[in-house]
Design goal:
Structural class: mainly beta
Bound molecules: calcium ion
Shape: globular
Largest sheet: 5 strands, mixed
Strand order of the largest sheet: 3-35-36-37-38
CATH superfamily of the domain at 592-673: Cytochrome c-like domain
Helix content: 10-25%
CATH architecture of the domain at 592-673: Orthogonal Bundle
Oligomer: single chain
Radius of gyration: 24 Å
């Protein structure tokens, strides 16, 4: 006999639980972090440290593009909902993989240029028979979970501005919370609550102040304006809520993580300096009204792209002899923060990776002790972490059983330099070329010293309990389970399971690609499944693809595992799906002045997606094929690869300018070829 019960008020998720001690028949994964505390922890334990050796592939499907697959799927009532680049969303029978419906919101391809870090999506929301999609073009769309037909749709952004949505919408009761990205493109960040039944706007909270002449929306904006100078609103300010949101239903507090400043270099957005609230902060808002309650700013006066948008985990734990309601975050800046989630009080903060921008946190003030050399001028300086962060969007997980947080950590270094000048809304105010000798030295150091690992972090003692080292940075999000297991996709193109208590590797399977997304687990008819999207790409690929030129990848796929699964992947294709074979570059025919013009144009228009000095990025342009060289103008101006995310630049680049960029890339290819 099966009872339906509300398993936890904190979760608001319906679990169908079998009576007495039998295993539950169906267990959902209905919200991106499973529960609103974003722990990414499942109580399921059929797959456990003893049985995991029998784990095999149950079913798989190929995904739509070779761009980053960052989504956490959802499972409700035996149906798995997955979403891919361009927000193409598909429902499958969660046990068999049979496709039930597919919905394409037909996002205009020009938004491919506005997404700083790939045309990705990190997941979906679910509310009362509806799947909730946050589309790249700023629409919030509810589709019928049974048919895939649109129920309602609202525009959450002004399509004339450079906003995009890549984060998963969160559904708390009848409220949907959704943020957006665009701090690299000159926008002002905000988060909005909508009524999940009909899409009606309930409240909106901006993260940075607007033009004082227009009046402040609330006291929090007025207070924040004191920490800015000049005409900051001209460049948007940034602080976008592009990923993590958590919720505590007892406190009725919504926690948002805010992003970097717009532009990156502080002097161009706030000439007198200042903290620039509420950039790079955790902010608590009243769930019903959206009113400000408290904030903690992780990186005052942020200018290294140190977003605090990484997932925030809520848990209760004993610290210093008393139970604390905490919120934990490992933002890009390299610290692991434990705060009191009722008050915002900083309980502790320690570094999870080597960093150079600060030496620690002054616990009396809660402020970082900065290394003044990290505040860069026009000559490049090496700062750690780089813009990829010590921890990025790839979710960390917390196990209440072990009391440990499992964090995908990266050690990164990057050259930062201010641009000579800045025009509001154009570029980052940060230079990506010039002083090439210094840049080359920094890049070589970064290549030699960057790495990644899975860290089991004790949030009470702020120490690392165990670590799984990887040869390169770039491994995936994490799932922890009551089976004493931690699952993670690895940069070694495998999917692996470790004992949660010791870190011992207990299972690993080659999967032909890198599952950078977070895995989920669910149960259908008494069988436990693990699902993960495997498709390398996203921000890390944008920033430093060069480090991965040896990566041999097969097609991106959704992979679903169960005990005794016997499905096999087709043989690995000989040609890598994502990182092409290298072709010798054409001879450089342009003069130095042309290359210099191309370099400046590249820095202003292309570097954000294609990397510092063309070293990597979403496509490594030093390694274009002869066919790509031949169709360069068709791609850049004609938009012939818009469906892949490369929208036309005909509105900002002339034919001559496009040619100058092409010459610069040929020069860069010749410089680095064979090195
Ligand atoms: Ca950013």
């Amino acid at each position: 006999m099966i009872f339906l019960l509300r398993s936890a008020i904190a979760a608001g998720l319906l679990l169908a639980v079998a009576a007495f001690s039998q295993a539950p028949a169906h267990v959902d994964w209905a919200s991106t972090g499973l529960e609103w505390n974003e722990q990414h922890f499942s109580p399921l334990d059929q797959i456990n440290a003893d049985t995991v050796g029998d784990l095999g592939l149950a079913w798989y499907v190929d995904l739509n593009t070779d761009r980053g697959q960052e989504a956490t799927p959802l499972v409700v009532d035996g149906v798995l909902y997955n979403t891919e680049p361009w927000n193409i969303t598909t429902a499958y029978n969660a046990a068999t993989g049979e496709q039930l419906w597919r919905y394409d919101p037909k996002v205009p391809l020009r938004f491919g240029r506005l997404a700083c870090c790939d045309i990705v999506t990190r997941g979906l929301g679910f509310h009362d028979g509806k799947v909730i999609i946050g589309a790249l073009d700023g629409r919030l769309i509810a589709v019928d979970a049974k048919t895939g037909e649109e129920v309602w749709s609202v525009q959450t952004t002004d399509p004339a501005d450079s906003y995009t949505i890549t984060g998963a919408p969160r559904v708390y009761g009848d409220r949907i919370l959704v943020g957006n990205g665009g701090a690299e493109m000159g926008v002002r960040g905000y988060v909005t609550a909508y009524d999940a039944n009909d899409g009606e706007l309930l409240w909106r909270w901006h993260t940075v102040p607007g033009n004082p002449a227009d009046g402040f929306e609330n006291a929090a904006m007025e207070a924040a304006a004191e920490t800015w100078s000049g005409e900051w609103w001209q460049s948007g300010g940034g602080g976008t809520v592009w990923d993590a949101i958590s919720y505590d239903p007892e406190l009725d507090l919504v926690y948002i993580g805010t992003g970097n400043g717009s532009p990156w270099t502080r002097k161009f957005r706030s000439p007198e300096g200042g903290d620039n609230l509420y950039l790079a902060s955790i902010v608590a808002l009243d769930g019903a009204s959206g009113e400000y309650r408290w904030h903690y700013q992780t990186t005052p006066g942020e200018e290294w792209d140190y977003t605090a948008t990484q997932n925030m985990v809520l848990a209760d734990m004993e610290i210093g002899g008393r139970m604390r309601q905490v919120i934990m975050q490992a933002p890009k800046n390299g610290f692991f923060y434990v705060l009191d989630r009722a008050t915002g009080e900083l309980i502790s903060a320690e570094t999870i990776a080597p960093i150079s921008w600060a030496t620690g946190i002054d616990m009396a003030t809660g402020r970082p002790v900065e290394n003044p050399e990290a505040r860069y001028g026009t000559i490049p300086v090496m700062v750690s972490p780089g813009a990829g962060g010590a921890h990025n969007w790839n979710p960390m997980a917390y196990s209440p059983d072990t009391g440990l947080v499992y964090v995908p950590v990266t050690e990164t270094y990057m050259a930062y330099a201010a641009a000579e000048s800045y025009e509001p809304g154009r570029g980052l105010g940060t230079a990506f070329a010039g002083h090439d000798d210094i840049r080359r030295e920094i890049a070589e150091y970064a290549d030699a010293n960057s790495k990644g690992w899975l860290s089991a972090w004790d949030p009470v003692t702020q120490t690392e309990r165990w670590r799984v080292p990887y040869a390169q940075k770039g491994s995936g999000g994490v799932l922890a389970t009551a089976g004493n297991l931690v699952f993670q996709g690895t940069i070694g193109t495998t999917f692996a399971a470790y004992r949660a208590d010791t870190g011992e590797k207990v299972w690993e399977l080659p999967v032909q690609n890198v599952p950078i997304a977070a895995p989920i687990t669910y149960m259908v008819d008494g069988v436990q499944y693990i699902a993960v999207n495997a498709g390398w790409g996203g921000g890390l690929a944008h920033v430093e693809r060069a480090a991965y030129s040896g990566l041999h990848l097969g097609p991106p796929r959704l992979l679903v595992f169960k005990l005794g699964g016997t499905t096999e992947l087709p043989p690995m294709p000989e040609e890598s799906f994502v990182v092409p074979e290298l072709s010798p570059p054409p001879a450089l025919e342009a003069d130095a002045a042309t290359v210099a013009r191309g370099e400046a144009l590249y820095g202003a228009n292309c570097a954000i997606c294609h990397g510092n000095a063309a070293r990597g990025g979403v496509k490594d342009l030093r390694h274009m094929s002869p066919a790509t060289h031949a169709s360069f103008a068709e791609i850049v101006l004609g938009g012939s690869r818009a469906a892949n995310g490369m929208a036309s630049f005909a509105d900002v680049l002339s034919e001559a300018e496009s040619q100058d960029i092409h010459h610069y890339l040929i020069a860069r290819a010749n410089e680095d070829w064979g090195n």
